[in-house]
Amino acid sequence: MAIKGTLQNVFTRKRLVLLGTYFIMLVLAVILLDQFAMPWYTKHGEALAVPNVIAQRFEDAKELLELQGLDVVKAGEKNNAHLPFGYVVEQSPLPNRLVKMGRRVYLTISTGERKFQMPNFIGLSETNARERLKSYSLLLEDIVYRYSAEEPRDVVMAQSKDHGTLVKVGTPIEITVSLGEPTENVIVPSLLGKTFNVAKRELQKAGLVVGNITYKINNDYIPNSVLFQSLEAETEAAHGDTVDLLVTRFKQE
Question: Is the fold of 48-110 the same as that of 114-182?
């Protein structure tokens, strides 16, 4: 009861009316400021909205901002895969922010995609070269297999981009892998159930050549799977012999 009496003494009807009046006046002041004062302030050149110059050439962005009465400062450079060299990638203040005339606008300029020196894969095993290509985000476009009396089997002996050349992420790279010293006869690998790309690589590594490719509609197997090979697996064949393949494909609806 004492607490209730205290609250009644503090929040009297007169005080509540005054508080309500002050709150309404505050809301009206905010509305007037937003609807009338700020537009008037902007209109009379005291404040303006910063234009959006992201993705524009630095020279064009600088000209546009200076025409608006703003001071342009080049803040720095940054790699960007989506904007070419010389284009604005960031700005501060952000677009549409209200600022006074003469305010400095800091622009960060794109240097294009990040480039780095091509690593050296020569001397690595095929497996290690694959792993390193992936770690550098380079695309393994193709592997060429060749016999070599100088290089041991399964060692990379050439690459399509020279070591030290500047490349960017996603650059396609071809490597050449040694098959070791040439032999007269080779062992035919088993290709059944493997995809065509894997089968082709297995034949190249064995020193054999892909022959005729026949396609057969078969929805029970993964598309491009090998169903038949003309030379029996684990048998001997002459170096350079061709192997014909029967490959699956889905029925087109």
Answer: yes
